[in-house]
Amino acid sequence: MGDLSGKTAIITGAASGIGYAGVEVFVEAGANVVAGDLQDEKGKALEARFGSDRVRYVHCDVTKTADLQKLFDTAQDVFGGLDILWNNAGHGGTPTGVEELDEEGWDQTMNLLLKSVFVGTKLAVPMMKEKGGSIINTSSISAVCAGYAPITYSVAKKGVAHFSKLAAAELSKYKIRVNAILPGFIATSIFGASLGLSREQADQMAALVEQQGGRMQPAGRTGQGKDIAEMAAYLASEKSGFITGGEFLVDGGMTVGPRHSWDESDGGPLLDALGISVEQAEQMRLAMQAGQADT
């Protein structure tokens, strides 16, 4: 994790999940943080935990430019400027497929997950262009693989990743670096929220995800918000000064290949197509070996 001493960061979606872990990690690394979120009770508790001299909570709906502007005004007024922006806020997207999806559902997701990244980046440039800075955008493994999230979420997150690359090229003249993080299966409340659960229920579901999710990935455990936050802190620091325009998978290996590529107990597509279990295939192999030995 890099040293962020004396730097000021804005983190959206900061009151829970990955964003909350981001505040913890960034403060530990020495940064002052402007934390934006809609969850006022949690946000105020976050400010109280670290003290208003290190963390300032600002109520922020990232789909509203005026709300986003308040984050940047606070960074300037309270901490004297801005060095790091982490566009992290989001939700699971409108959970319907192409046939059922309407324009309103599409627009809602794009405004939250993609447009807010553009607006946040645009607002950051005037504050960073004189001395440089680091912009980090939360994308997703759904940007590179189908089947992990609804189509609206996946398309938006693909847009976030590609926007980051294009912005990195355009803003390099100001020494502003832009990178995207692509988290995998992280134990947060986003899964429950996507199912329409209350925030309390979604938080409870996050605990269940943490317990059960390890079986889904080669790393053997569910990802934690801190896993993503530590990557963000590295990308925010001078240690990553030669890195821009990157897309960084932090996914416990979920995208290395299908399950049978890393789990010997999974038979793979051929056995599935034949309707044969791994045990049956092994029995057939041993029987064939025995038959060859008899001839």
TrEMBL record:
PANTHER family: 3-OXOACYL-(ACYL-CARRIER-PROTEIN) REDUCTASE (AFU_ORTHOLOGUE AFUA_6G11210), NAD(P)-BINDING ROSSMANN-FOLD SUPERFAMILY PROTEIN. This is SDR family oxidoreductase. The keyword Oxidoreductase applies. GO terms for biological process: steroid metabolic process. It comes from the Bacteria. It holds the Pfam family adh_short_C2. InterPro entries: NAD(P)-bd_dom_sf, SDR_fam. GO terms for molecular function: oxidoreductase activity. It comes from Henriciella algicola. Keywords: Lipid metabolism, NAD, Oxidoreductase, Steroid metabolism. Belongs to the short-chain dehydrogenases/reductases (SDR) family.
